Amino acid sequence: MSTTMSAGSTRSPRDEHHDPAPSDPAAPRGAAAPHPAAARSAGPRSAAPDPAEPDPAPSHPDLAGAVDQPLQVLAVDGTRRPEAQLDPCLRDVDEAQLAALFLDMSVIRALDDEAVALQRQGELGLWPPLRGQEAAQIGLARALPERDFFFTSYRENGVAWCRGVEPAEMLSVWRGTTLSGWDPFARRMATPQVIIGAQTHHAVGYAMAMAARGQEDIAIACFGDGAMSQGDVSEAMVFAASFRAPVLFFCQNNHYAISEPVALQSTVPLSHRPLGFGIPSLRVDGNDVLAVRAATRLAAERIRSGAGPMFLEAVTYRLGPHTTSDDPTRYRDETELERWRERDPILRLDRHLERLGAPVAQLRTEADERGREAADALRDAVAALPVPAPEALFEHVLTSEHPGLARQREQLTALEASLAPAGSAS
Amino acid sequence: MSDFLLPDLGEGLTEATIVAWHVAVGDEVTRNQALAEVETAKALVELPSPRAGRISALHAAEGETLGVGAPLVGFAEADAADAEADAGPGAAPAEAASPEPEQEQEQEQEQEAASAAGAGEARLERQQVLVGYGPVLPGTGRPRRRARTFPTTPYERPASATGDGPTPRAMPPVRRRARDLGIDLDAVHGSGPGGRILRADVEAHAHGGGTAGRRDTGARGSRHVPVTGLRKQTARAMTESAFTAPHASVHVTIDVTDTLELLDRDGRAEHRTSFLAAVCRAILPAAARTPAANARYDAETGRIEVFDEVRLGIAVATERGLLVATLPRAGGTPTAATPSGATAPGTAQGPALTAAIAETAARAREGALSPEELTGSTLTVTNVGVFGVHGGTPILNPGQSTILALGALRTQPWEHRGGIALRTVVTLTLSFDHRVLDGAEASAFLMDIAETLADPATLLVR
């Protein structure tokens, strides 16, 4: 997309920082000046109209331009472009780090593919694939220290993997053998929420507690574009802003709330909404792992400094179905999909590594091997998952024994005993 | 040989149709290699192979629909796992593959056809309810709910568990009812299946105070009263009315202080006009202005019968039960069945009408009404106010389109000439057959009556 410069677009973010009057938030989409980064952009830009990259308009005065224009440091063709806000957070990135990110993304894709296959083979009841969102999840999870606490939706299995969640822990909920796959405190990641947006409350509450205790940990609420239409998320942002809670709202805009396109849910970029709550916001290319990583660091530093909550919108795309029960061909077409395959986050880093002259072929082989190992471990874990006794239902309801529950457990046991003969007869 | 069974591909699916096979018998496949494309009620998906190995059987033909759990693909038991790394599709000799699957497919199709014919109804009964998609609707019509049965033996409460064993079995609403009534379920005998306590058991316990349900002891918890005579007739009439005529009601509360003063102005008992008589008097011109209020809906002919004449019926509570007594003709023509002197011409006048009502009611209590007097009314007034209540919503007397309920005359603070004064007010409720009248007509009729009662002088100017 070619861009033209306008008066506002040449100002640096630093200048805008001192500009007391932010531009008109009601400016029509695409009508205002492009982001400064676009004007400075060295590399060629994607020729196709890019839904992830239009809509230049207003911004938080503190965070120039990025509310609209997704910040990007890796172009689709893999070229590295300067980005004034993010570059300071990327100074430590060397080839080894890039390779690690490449491996991370490759491995979680392999894990994800294997889980989809396991569902198709009848081993899992359901699985929500993350294919296409690897950069958003890896960029996020790898930017934060272990002590920060994640409150996620059900699709953040890439985040879970970064947090050391074991294959068996990752699959047990989807196989229906447990209600919570892992110890949230051990992994610093709460049990993923299936209720859309509910985890944002948990994150804000946790963050408020951290602030009250004087701890520097921050909480991260991960949710999708669909959750932005939920009342819970709005309420959570109200509380976060009012109490200056150290929480990062991380929205993976994968363009669809199941079948509902994001444009139907929001007539403005999602990153505009937090501004109304008084929460600064950044829009970042969610298929650019470096941009996500840098933006997360920027946000986390800011939050940790006591500046209150912050919102990141990672503009990405779900290449697979919403879940294994979904048929995306019913609501989107192949041309759209093809456009986004071209923006594949792993492919982009691959191209970047290639441009840097890194040993890509070797990396690809290693990625395949590690991916296969992880997939094998996942498959082996499924077979080994114990089937819990029905009485296990009662185990994690209350911390102590309760007469009512004890009675119900006895009744269940008696019921099972009475069912046994009929069951064996049929 | 081991079979790969067709899995539930999406939260509650019961079947899938084979759209295309990507492998043939004899093929060596790797794990997760696509075996087939199948279509479910939700989506078209590729089925990845659960293992590496050699395909020994395809259990369905393309286009065939298989139930979840049915064998889909057979794998040869050879050391297949070792072949995973290098064996791809087409690695196996092609000639071994071709004849066998066709035979198998034919057999399978025959079997399928046979089983479909044999269990045809059972197959039609099957219904998929998809998470997020709702039930599959067979053509038109609404979703059907089918009782599901499982081969189970009922749970019996262990004999030993008497004292502090499990709580007696009862549905939550029944438990709630028992709690509200302050009844300990342990003391209630359950007459339901498997000794379950039913609501009736709780009610019986509450009324009888006994420890056993009525089924066992007959009448300890309650009393059975045979429904006969008038009670039976009332029950039938009310049921018929309530379930054939769509009822609706309108209410109005009016200040009748001035009217009552007017009625009491002449102190002589024989000239006194009762309020009920005044109401009856007010109905007559109102019914003339709203003819639909004095009519009936004839379902058999699909017509509304509008009566020429208003025959007022007065609901009378008697020892035997409720009666609707027809007043002497309002127009003043006595009928053969009403020998009373009160039926002289001019009965519509206040004092005479008062006397006629009193006399009719008295004869109703004595059981002395003629059949014509019991059935001849076209519009009923029920004076529930005599019981002290402010009003009520009456059920129509069958064959009539309106019924007016008269509440108690009560003195209460009321708006009067821009201030608040103690006034005597009364609530009038008109129930009407919505097949005959709409709210507008019913309201007009009621307000007509109300205005006359609030200000009798309107009779002169209308």
What would you say this structure looks like, in words?
The complex is a heterodimer of chains A (426) and B (462). Chain A has helices spanning 13-17, 36-40, 95-120, 134-141, 157-162, 167-175, 184-187, 199-213, 231-242, 262-265, 273-277, 289-307, 334-342, 345-356, 360-384, 403-425; strands at 149-151, 219-224, 247-253, 256-257, 260-261, 281-285, 310-315. With 426 residues, chain A is of the alpha/beta class. Chain A has 2 domains: 87-384, Thiamin diphosphate (ThDP)-binding fold, Pyr/PP domains (Rossmann fold, 3-Layer(aba) Sandwich), CATH 3.40.50; 395-419. In chain A, strand 2 (219-224), helix 9 (231-242) and strand 3 (247-253) form a beta-alpha-beta unit. Chain A is globular, with a radius of gyration of 23 Å. The relative contact order of chain A is 0.14. In chain B, strands 11, 14, 15, 16, 17, 18 and 19 form a 7-stranded mixed sheet that branches. In chain B, strands 1-8-6-3 form a 4-stranded antiparallel sheet, with helices on one face. In chain B, helix 4 runs parallel beside helix 5. Chain B is elongated. The chains are: A alpha/beta (426), B alpha+beta (462). The A-B interface holds A 113-114, 117, 119-123, 125-126, 258, 321, 324-327, 329, 407, 410-411, 414-415, 418-419, 421-423, 425-426 and B 4-11, 32, 42-50, 130-132, 151-156, 158, 166-167.
The N- to C-terminal Cα distance of chain B equals 99 Å
Overall radius of gyration of chain A: 23 Å
Shape of chain B: elongated
Task: Tell me, rounded to a whole number, the average pLDDT of chain B.
Answer: 77
- Cα gyration radius of chain B (Å): 39 Å
Element order of chain A: H for helix, E for strand: HHHHEHHHHEHEEEHHEHEHHHH
Largest sheet of chain A: 5 strands, parallel
Classify the beta-strand content of chain A into a percent band: 5-15%
Number of domains of chain B: 3
Low-confidence runs of chain B (pLDDT<50, min 5 residues)? Answer: 80-124, 211-219, 331-347
Determine and state the CATH class of the largest domain in chain B: Alpha Beta
Count of extended strands of chain B? 19
CATH-assigned fold name of the largest domain in chain B: Chloramphenicol Acetyltransferase
Spans of at least 5 consecutive residues with low confidence of chain A? 1-65
User: How many structural domains of chain A?
Assistant: 2
Overall pLDDT of chain A, averaged?
A: 85
| CATH class division of the largest domain in chain A | Alpha Beta
